[in-house]
Amino acid sequence: MMKTNSEPRGLLLVDKPKGLTSHDVVARTRCRLATRKVGHAGTLDPMATGLLVLGIGRGTKLLSLAVGLDKEYKATIRLGASTTTDDAEGEILDSPGCNSIPDLEAVLARYRGDIEQIPSSVSAIKVDGKRAYARVRAGEVVQLKARPVTVSALDIVGEPRLVEGYLDLDVRVRCSSGTYIRALARDIGNDLGVGGHLTALRRTAVGPWRIEQASEELRSLEQACVDLVPQACSVDGKEALQFRHGGVQFSHGLVSDGNSMASVKLETKVLGIVGALHGKIKALFIIDPA
Q1: At a CB cut-off of 8 Å and minimum separation 6, what does 257 contact?
Q2: DSSP assignment of 14-77
Q3: Are 48 and 142 in contact (CB under 8 A)?
Q4: Predicted TM-score of the model (pTM)
């Protein structure tokens, strides 16, 4: 039977509301688009809002290239109290309060650049096959290992404000995938000696996509490829056919031992993405395999 492209496919940029899990959004999208083929490129906690990138149909195959992209957030850190979950949904562990921090900028500077971060114990990281948060809810004590992350921007937005004896900071964070903003709030508060936790979190960007682009309309796979990899290489008909079969007999300036990628074009038609993988130039994503 000949395959058809009648099923929905592409990327969906969703502005996730507070209170829903990422799985809730996936489930609702499956119902709305009448397809089981829906995945996401990075979890958002229920208390968080903002950009959730969904792959639909063949778009799920593109998520492997999107899941590791840098993220950007707006967050509110409350200094003066620590909680069991490092955010406002947990129980308060210690609450000395906080009125002012004269050396705040010096402490923030420690968390810019390449750092080692211990994720929150209620994260979705698996420990012996079970999510850390599930182990914590079952009463277990979870000790997670520190992991390298990169915080390329950590800036205070506006003026810190006093709220019920605590000091609230609005911050903008640009970071590598796998960075936990709750853990930043916890560690900054601990360094200041007053404790800290997250009271609000909004993801504003994932790689090239920004929250302002969130829409109910599917983003085509062709556009998504160009979004991800603006650099393009043009191929002829023979090379295009080879690419659609998964073969790459061209380089067009790509370096096999580097991290270079390019979207593949036959005239004006985008066919997919090619790039370096394990020392060879390979097809990383094919929109319509032959």
Answers
A1: 276, 279
A2: EEEPTT--HHHHHHHHHHHHT-S-EEESS---TT-EEEEEEEEGGGGGGHHHHTTS-EEEEEEE
A3: no
A4: 0.91
CA separation for the pair 268, 187 (Å, rounded): 49
How would residue 126 be classed by pLDDT, with cut points 50, 70 and 90? Answer: confident
pLDDT in tens, 258-274: 668 899 999 999 999 99
Nearest to 117 by CA among 192, 179, 171, 67: 179
Determine the pLDDT at residue 121. 76
Which among 117, 118, 119, 140 has a CA at the least distance from the CA of 130? 140
Q: Does residue 5 carry a pLDDT above 80? A: no
Distance CA 155, CA 66 (A): 25
Strand ranges for 158-221 from DSSP E: 161-163, 166-175, 196-206, 209-210
Domains and CATH numbers, the chain: 10-68 (3.30.70), 71-206 (3.30.2350.10), 229-286 (2.30.130)
* Whether the Cβ atoms of residue 79 and residue 192 lie closer than 8 Å to each other: yes
Q: Report the catalytic residues.
A: 45
Neighbours of 230 (CB within 10 A): 10
User: Which amino acid, one-letter code, is at 217?
Assistant: E
Q: 175-210 b/e with 16+ CB inside 10 Å = b?
A: bebbbbbbbbbbbbbeebebbbbbbbbbbbbbbebe
86-97 pLDDT, tens digit per residue, is 999 989 999 999
Predicted confidence band of residue 127 (pLDDT cuts 50, 70, 90): confident
Q: Which of 114, 279, 80 is nearest to 190 (CA)?
A: 80
Instruction: Indicate the Cα dihedral angle 104, 110, 113, 118, nearest 10°.
Output: -110
Q: 45: which 2 tokens?
A: 């906690």
Q: Which two tokens stand for residue 97?
A: 């309060």
